[in-house]
Design brief:
Length: about 270
């Protein structure tokens, strides 16, 4: 088997990336076009255009990074993680994103023409940093003190800053992804189960006993749990999205009305007059 030539991409991975990106753009347009028409005087393309610009910048960055060997990341990954921690601290003071009720997460930093969400960069930083740490530690990862504990500190500091925004969803994704990497890298299953049990207990406290952790009484996680059980308990608030999703499935099924109408039109065009 001939080794790949220098700067030759993995075409399958590149193709799948393009497909997922195109599908994401389609979903953004589907979800935002109606709102954009009402908010922007008939312009249904505002959100898809801004998203397309971001995709274009990402593709340019991808083409640049494709020409570098991944090993150079080991030299900058610590600084990348530290920089993201600084952004996560900064967003607590200057971040925006609160909704009209004032209970949303301060997750975004306004840079004028664009906003950035530090928690998204933090996910990448933690994944890369853990990969380097796991590579360096090897079999030591099976031990708590000299192997697993430093990784837990990395995860805990990053997830803790995200929870202060508060952004429970992003923190949960970061934690789950991090432990998946640790387990794949050699973490003992019994350690994973023990930490998972402790985490499940903390989540239970956060959702069902909000006064213990959040004295303000704001508990949007519990609202989401109620929405999952009964979306009609708050049809104009937390249950709005799920109710309309059920309406969409009821009206169009798994294929939706758009695909069905397209098939009907195609069938009509292929029929002789």
């Amino acid at each position: 088997m001939n080794p790949p030539k220098k700067n030759t991409p993995d075409y399958l991975l590149l193709f799948l990336t393009m497909i997922l990106t195109a599908f994401g753009l389609l979903m953004v347009y589907s979800a935002s076009s109606t709102i954009s028409v009402y908010d922007n005087k008939g312009d249904s393309l505002k959100f898809i255009i801004s998203q397309g610009i971001a995709v274009g910048l990402g593709l340019v960055l991808m083409l640049i990074l494709m020409n570098f060997h991944y090993s150079w990341l080991r030299k900058i990954v610590f600084l990348f993680w530290i920089g993201n921690l600084a952004m996560l601290v900064l967003v607590l003071f200057i971040g925006n994103g609160k909704n009209v009720k004032g209970v949303g997460a301060n997750s975004w930093i306004d840079l004028g023409p664009m906003n950035i969400q530090p928690s998204e960069f933090a996910k990448l930083a933690v994944i890369l940093y853990l990969a380097v740490v796991i590579t360096n530690k090897g079999e030591k990862l099976k031990k708590i003190k000299n192997g697993l504990l430093p990784c837990l500190i990395i995860i805990g500091i990053t997830a803790g800053l995200i929870l202060l925004q508060p952004d429970f969803g992003s923190a949960a994704i970061l934690i789950l992804g991090s432990f998946a990497i640790l387990w794949t890298g050699g973490m003992r299953t019994k350690h994973l189960l023990a930490i998972g049990a402790c985490g499940a207990g903390l989540i239970f406290l956060k959702i069902f006993v909000p006064s213990i952790i959040n004295s303000s009484g704001v508990n949007y996680q519990l609202d989401r749990f109620h929405t999952w059980l009964d979306p009609w308990f708050d049809p104009d608030g937390s249950g709005y999205q799920m109710i309309n999703s059920l309406y969409a499935f009821g009206h169009g099924g798994l294929t939706g009305t758009g695909i069905g109408n397209s098939i009907q039109k195609l069938h009509f065009l292929t029929q002789p007059y």
